[in-house]
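A protein record in our archive is deliberately plain, so that people and models can read it alike. The record that follows is passed on verbatim for readers who wish to inspect the format.
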Amino acid sequence: KGSYGYSETGSIADRHDAEEGMKHYEWGVQRAGLAGPLIERFRGLDKGGFSKPRMSGSKIAAGRIAQFISGTTFDILKKRTKEVRRSLSVVFCIDDSGSMECEKRYKYAWQSAAMLAVACERAGVQISVARFCTDFSVVKSFTDRIALAAPHLTLRNKGGTYIPRGITRSAELLYERREDNRVVFLLTDGMDEGGHRVHQAIKSAEKKGVKVIPVLFGDQKKDYPEYFETWEQYDPVILTDEDAHTQAFGSKLVQRLCQWI
C-alpha cells in the first residue's frame, strides 16, 4: 500500500481522495488546540467553588490575615470544592452527498470533523466518525485512532441525501455507551430527501439520551429555504460559505458551538 493507505494499483481518483483526506486531517491537527474550551463545556466542567464557611477550627495562613481582618475576603474560611468532569462520547456524522460539492462545503465539513476529532482524542474523549448519503458507513470506530482514518476524511460517495439514516445510525453507535454525555455532531448542508423523518430521528435519539447538534454549511435560508424550516427549530450552528473561506474558520466554528452550548 502507498503512504496514504490506498493500493498502489488503485485508481487515480482513489489516490486523489486519499491525499485530500490527509490534507483535511493535517488541517485539523494544526488547529485542534482551538477546540479545548468546547470540550470542557461538553464535559460540564465545574471549576469548583467554595463550600459554606466553617464556623470554627479554621486555620488562617499568616499571609492572608490582613485580608481577613480588613474584610477583603472570607473565602479562606471556606473549603474549596473539587472540579467535576463528566465523561463524553461523540460521533461525527458527515454528509457525503453530491450537494456538498457546492462551494466545496464537503472540504470544510471534513476539516471541521478532523479538528474536533483530534482535539477530542487528545483529551481522552471517545469518538467515532461516520459518513452518510443514502447509505451509512463508519470511517473511524471508537477503538481506532483518528490518524488511521485520515485518508478517508473526504467526500467519497456523492450520492443522494437521507439525513434520518445518518442521525439514526450515528445515535445507535452511542446507545450502549456509558459516558455521561453522548453527542452526535451532524455536519451537513441541510439538503435532505427524508422530510419529516428528520424530526422523528432527532426525537428518537434524544429520548434515549443522545444529543444531536446540527452544524449546517452554506446559506440555507437562501439556497434551501424549504429545508431550512426543518432545521430552524433545532437552533443549528450555521457556517456560511463566507465564514468557511476565511482564515479564522476554525475559531468561528468553535466559538459558535460554544455559544450553542
